[in-house]
Amino acid sequence: MLTHLFNESSLLSRVVLLGANGFVPRALRIRLKTGGIPHLVIGSNDVDLVDSASPARLVAQLKADDVLVMCAALTPEKGRDPATLAKNLRMAEHVALALSRQRCAHIIYFSSDAVYGSAPSPISEATPAAPSDLYGVMHLARELIMIQSAQTAGIPFCVLRPCAIYGAGDTHNSYGPNRFVRSAVADRKIRIFGVGEETRDHVYIDDVTKLTLDIIARRSTGTLNLVSGQPTTFAALAVEIGRILQSEVPIEATARTGEPTHRWFDESALRHAFPAHRSTTLSAGLTAMIASSTPAQ
């Protein structure tokens, strides 16, 4: 659940993005620039958070009235091994050390729904975290590191746990809308596991960035799952992509490696925190994504 420290949207302070090249920070940067909001983007070329010298470098960049949004992480395609886990934890350790020397006004940590592991649906913010892989373990551990750091420094803190994010500019090509659209446009076919019966929730990148700015503006604290509340099967998703493209897109079944699992969310906390928010429908999000992915004729 979220608590808004400001009942109305406040004038935004400078936003400092940790992470420059990921899907979320790139999209956030565009929204900040479009909104004329002061911001500073710090990528690994500027401050390598794995490096022991990074806390001092980060301290030199931070100001007391900054909002710090931490998106920097080595994602699963970079490695799922203990060495990658250790690097990710070191990054959080160094950010925490910097904050012990230079506090800021607000911290937002981008986590993942992977912290819930294989918890039964519907999943809510009250669902106990029980990660089932090192990626989920990493995010849960980093949440705890950042929470302790924020509490010690007296900084308002918010954890965001998005489900699978899709949209133009995706950098992960994960199974689902991102991979399906690329494959449909480039190869004129979509491959699914089994018959695509698994149910999942996918959230549009524009909704993620809009909600993040709302959280910054209200200086919200607590934990929130970023979801759409529109679970669908992968098979239905593939069919919808073909419908939007207005062409035959063959769907090829491939052997699955495990039993199908279903996963969806209770979005009550999101609706309570932002009653006026309306999630982008999957059809509208896919249409916009495909328009950005299809070469102009």
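That was protein one. Protein two is written in the same sequence-then-structure order:
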Amino acid sequence: EIWVGTDDGQVSMTTDHGKTWKNITANIKGLPKGAWIPQIVLSQNDPKEAWVVANHYRQNDWKPYLFHTTDGGKKWENVVEKANMTGHCLSVAQDAIQPELVFCGTEHGLYVSMDRGKTWEKWKHNYPSVPTQDLKIHPDHGDLIIGTFGRAIYVLDDISPLRDWINNGKQIKDSLSIY
């Protein structure tokens, strides 16, 4: 299975090693026409779950767009539309160990969700409000590796406490002391 996004707002996928492609752009309600698709992240836990990062700042639209599907791309939701998030979206990472844990990088910093994108909080603990271009979770060490536009690399060392809070059933609001 391969998914691709383009710099003119198209999202397509193939499930037969590229022999045939299906354009699913029309399924993504709320995706601005011509938006840039800088990242698509597929869930490592659910073959029907995916995240599409879109931004439209080149058309002076600074709203965040992060779309999520759990049915293989038939229906989508902009999971940051109602979030108190600033800056257009640039990157996303979903934890393979605890898939409820999702990170989103924007033009103005890093955001975290502990409920698979239903709610978001800005990560303020020793991290500046900078363009957060790329996010990867190290598969062996559980570190969040962050690449910024300013050519800096940050490492959020060991995200297992965040995983533990989710496993223990606590809500993100109960955990604000970490921000």
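Residues 89 and 106 are 4 Å apart (CA to CA). Keep this in mind for the problem set.
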